[in-house]
Amino acid sequence: MNPFTRQAxxxxxxxxxxxxxxxxxxxxxxEWRLNDVSGHLPDLDFRLTDDNGKAVTGADFKGKVTVxxxxxxxxxxxxxxxxxxxxxxxxxxxxxxxxxxxxxxxVDPARDTPAIMHAYVNAFDKRAVGLVGSxxxxxxxxxxxxxxxxxxxxRGDGNYEVSHSSAIYIFDxxxxxxxxxxxxASQDDIVHDLHLLTSMETTP
Amino acid sequence: MMVRTIAAxxxxxxxxxxxxxxxxxxxxWIRVLPGSLPAGGYVVFRNTGDREVAIVDAESPAYGMAMxxxxxxxxxxxRMEMVDRVAIPARGTVAFSPGGYHVMLExxxxxxxxxxxxxxxxxxxxxxxxxxxxxxxxxxxxGPKD
Lengths: 204, 146
Description:
Chain A is an alpha+beta fold. Chain A is about 35% helix and about 20% strand. Chain A contains five helices and ten strands; from the N terminus they run αββββαβαβαββββα. In chain A, the strands form two sheets. Chain A has an eight-stranded mixed beta sheet with strand order 1-10-9-4-5-6-2-3, sandwiched between helices. Chain A has a two-stranded antiparallel sheet with strand order 7-8. Chain B is mainly β. Chain B has one domain: Immunoglobulin-like (Sandwich). In chain B, strands 1, 2, 3, 4, 5, 6, 7, 8, 9 and 10 form a ten-stranded mixed beta sheet that branches.
């Protein structure tokens, strides 16, 4: 064997070693299309009542990818638009959607009872859960995610609107905040990222 | 010549008197929510006339209250506001669509079910009325038929 061939073979072995070492050390970075908020927002944590009237905490959703959105049932336009988009997204996701829950948190504790929330969320998607709580509990949750809501003045007939943050928060099965989407995010992008996130759940 | 002038004047008068005839509506649907929750109505208005016409009011025999609203999610906040008028430009269209303009229908007089027709009458800036038949659609519908 001439020295050149021998040297080339050594270089090749070293390169292969480097490549395999790299593969071991660096976890594959998922290519998210939505905003990656990993490490920037707190884990899923709350104490609220679900739309069946049962007390629930963030821990009850361990193992599920959760999509959290703040809104209220007397919201005829923006909330239904977002919930419809999420319903279409989950239908497009197919079987993995069984591992996803939409958490619709009411920012209108005065009017939204578990029963109203139950009818409302189920009109959009069976994988949606309505969450209600006291003013304090809902405010604490909103604050935790730097979300905001304001009850607008009464229109004079006892009815009022509630302005609220329109962000969509996505958590992984361990309750870690992973992604942030706006209502104008494309359905393709949300489907893409939920596919990635749910596949990471099944193959840890 | 005289006849032509009179004919032209008549045409002009007819045009003025029937400004509302230049406005038509299509693809009208209502997103029905459970119970007696308010519903949003969506429609596309077309103005074939030479002058701007505005939608200034709405009413429906099926609901106790109808209002024209505009939603926005600017600055990350979802909010709604009442609007006094929505202009339909000359030879143009304006769409009431989810996340934007909509007619907000409150206090249903009876439960409105998907598939039902719902009458909504709009008042135009020239005082004319524009009756439009909306179709009631389920909560998670994307449009008049999907």
